[in-house]
């Protein structure tokens, strides 16, 4: 990380810089803070019409959270999300690292074609093909089951293959060769040498993929219409229905969904930045 | 896959597989060696073909039919869907909505570039500002939709803030097509700014620090440093961002779908396609629309690659 040297310039420029940063922070944080405030208000306070910026009377009023958690079926939503996360992230790691290992360590016929297939696939935005993908998923009988999003997340994640490819390339081939002399076969080399050395890449993929899956709305919305198959996005979306204009309840639901992301972000900040930089530029 | 079973039965020989010296090996060994990579590629390739290439092929095929997505019967209509798409203006109108998101992307890139430049110099609370700018990108789209529904509500956040500033606006922000689209595009900027910002920041920090020192000795000011060192240094990322922004603008879905459901003239291309396919059972027409969108995005990408060839793609 190369920090640039401080340039001594007029205080005006520096003040303007800070002002712009503060303004941006207000723009980012204010909508979120207001929702947090709203989530702590009672129905009566909301009816008072005292304005969105009014502080709640009782800052420890968690009634709305209870409502959102129970009526929004948040427990089962978190459960479904966790199930899908576990399988799709594990699958992505295994599939991505295997593909990267084969592509980098072997010369074989059609290798260029295979690489081109993966490369061209990044150009196809998932949203465009969903109508046709739907028919395929449906023909496998996976529609309205948790396996539909799982296979879609595993099958259409090409970015992770690139991330793994870059890392596999940095692992010296001599390690493979010495293991091979000791009698290790291709799978043993992959499992005992490549996979452990891929840990940083795995961390990146787990974080990037995990956040994407946790936040995705489109795929679960299309493929899992059943109430009891709600993930957090779709459950939150459906929660708004019966609660129409009860913003105190809806806000609590939104905060419940945002909170885990915030915690993960605070603990893993640096890895998250790196992950997204790596994931998007490749 | 027969390759797979045969290979699994004889793991010993697979060990010999490798890059070097393939010409000397006996033919049988060479064959097995050739099969090993396919063992690893089987699952990824099957998934890739099933969920990316097969849908694209099917989509193109459906686009020439009048299929409703359910009945076993479908008939070939030739280019009928495409003609309908281009002659019924209301079906094509959704592309104008993308204009709002495109304009927003331009704003977003400029603002992200500004903050990335500012925060790569020494600034107090640098990490705090970095985190604040990036965090929205990580938030669940549905939650963002609700946060901003409340934001734009009558008597919601925006009206209250304007009230504090002495402006008593009494308007439904999502009530007219123009203001609704501007509001929704603004939400997109709020949401995606952080990603661009972090990409730019990473690229700027990859520029060697000595360059700035040298420039300073030569008396270059901040703008010169930006113009002659930072801008050229981040060109590849910049061009990538432009591509992502264009294809993102064309395929805007979540924010408008969650916030307005496509009402008051905010229907985007993807919302329309989803409705055509899953509400009105016009799979054929929806597929034709999707093919058009895909072609536009591929064309944009192709143009970008021609214009900025230094974008290194060294996969092989």
UniProtKB/TrEMBL annotation, chain A:
Domain of life from the UniProt record: Bacteria
Protein's UniProt name: Carbohydrate ABC transporter permease
ABC transmembrane type-1 domain boundaries: 78-268
CDD domains per the UniProt record, alphabetical: TM_PBP2
Biological process per Gene Ontology, one example term: transmembrane transport
Localization: Cell membrane
Record flagged with keyword Transmembrane helix: yes
UniProtKB/TrEMBL annotation, chain B:
Main localisation: membrane
TM region positions: 35-54, 100-121, 133-152, 228-250, 284-303
Regions of compositional bias (Basic and acidic residues) in chain numbering: 1-13
Keywords, sorted A to Z: Cell membrane, Membrane, Transmembrane, Transmembrane helix, Transport
Cell compartments where the protein resides: Cell membrane
GO CC, alphabetical: plasma membrane
GO biological process, one term: transmembrane transport
UniProt entry tagged with the keyword Transmembrane helix: yes
Pfam families: BPD_transp_1
Domain ABC transmembrane type-1 span(s) in chain numbering: 94-304
InterPro entries reported for this sequence: MetI-like (IPR000515), MetI-like_sf (IPR035906)
Region annotation Disordered: where it falls in the sequence: 1-21
Protein name in the entry: Sugar ABC transporter permease
Native organism: Streptomyces liliiviolaceus
């Amino acid at each position: 990380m190369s920090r640039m040297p401080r340039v001594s310039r007029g205080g005006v420029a520096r003040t303007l810089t800070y002002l712009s940063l503060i303004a941006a922070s207000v723009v980012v944080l204010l909508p979120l803070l207001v929702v947090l405030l709203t989530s702590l208000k009672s129905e009566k306070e909301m009816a008072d019409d005292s304005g969105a910026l009014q502080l709640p009377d009782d800052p420890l009023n968690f009634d709305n959270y209870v409502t959102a958690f129970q009526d929004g079926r948040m427990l089962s939503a978190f459960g479904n999300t966790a199930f899908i996360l576990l399988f799709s992230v594990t699958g992505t790691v295994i599939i991505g690292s295997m593909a990267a290992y084969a592509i980098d360590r072997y010369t074989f016929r059609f290798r260029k074609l295979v690489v081109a297939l993966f490369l061209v696939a990044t150009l196809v935005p998932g949203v465009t093909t969903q109508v046709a993908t739907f028919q395929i998923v449906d023909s496998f009988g996976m529609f309205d089951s948790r396996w539909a999003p799982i296979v879609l997340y595993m099958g259409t994640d090409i970015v992770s293959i690139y991330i793994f490819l870059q890392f596999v390339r940095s692992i010296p081939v001599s390690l493979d060769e010495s293991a091979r002399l000791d009698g290790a076969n291709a799978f043993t080399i992959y499992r005992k040498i490549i996979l452990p050395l891929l840990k940083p890449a795995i961390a990146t993929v787990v974080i990037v993929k995990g956040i994407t899956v946790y936040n995705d709305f489109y795929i679960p919305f299309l493929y899992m219409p059943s109430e009891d198959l709600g993930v957090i996005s779709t459950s939150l979306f459906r929660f708004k229905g019966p609660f129409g204009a009860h913003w105190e309840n809806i806000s609590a639901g939104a905060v419940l969904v945002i909170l885990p992301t915030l915690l993960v972000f605070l603990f893993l900040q640096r890895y998250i930045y790196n992950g997204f930089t790596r994931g998007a530029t490749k | 896959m027969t390759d797979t079973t045969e290979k699994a039965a004889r793991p010993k020989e697979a060990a010999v597989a490798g890059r070097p010296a393939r010409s000397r090996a006996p033919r049988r060994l060479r064959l097995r060696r050739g099969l090993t990579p396919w063992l690893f590629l089987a699952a990824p390739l099957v998934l890739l073909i099933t969920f990316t290439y097969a849908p694209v092929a099917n989509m193109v095929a459906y686009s020439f039919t009048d299929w409703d997505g359910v009945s076993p019967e479908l008939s070939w209509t030739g280019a009928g869907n495409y003609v309908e798409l281009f002659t019924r203006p209301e079906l094509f109108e959704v592309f104008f909505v993308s204009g709002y998101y495109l304009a927003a992307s331009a704003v977003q890139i400029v603002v992200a570039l500004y903050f990335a430049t500012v925060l790569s110099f020494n600034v107090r609370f640098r990490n705090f500002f970095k985190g604040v700018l990036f965090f929205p990108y990580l938030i669940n789209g549905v939650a963002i939709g609700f946060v901003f529904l409340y934001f734009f509500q009558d008597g919601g956040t925006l009206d209250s803030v304007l009230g504090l500033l002495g402006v008593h606006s009494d308007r439904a922000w999502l009530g007219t097509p123009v203001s609704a689209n501007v509001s929704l595009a603004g939400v997109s900027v709020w949401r995606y700014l952080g990603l661009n910002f972090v990409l730019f920041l990473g690229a700027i920090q990859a520029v060697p620090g000595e360059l700035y020192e040298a420039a300073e000795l030569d008396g270059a000011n901040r703008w010169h440093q930006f113009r002659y060192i930072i801008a050229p240094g981040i060109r590849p990322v910049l061009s990538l961002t432009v591509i992502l922004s264009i294809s993102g603008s064309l395929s805007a879905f979540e924010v408008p779908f969650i916030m307005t459901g496509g009402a008051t003239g905010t229907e985007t291309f993807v919302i329309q396609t989803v409705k055509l396919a899953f509400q009105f059972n016009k799979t054929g027409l929806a597929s034709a629309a999707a093919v058009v969108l895909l072609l536009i995005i591929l064309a944009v990408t192709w143009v970008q690659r021609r214009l900025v060839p230094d974008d290194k793609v060294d996969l092989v």
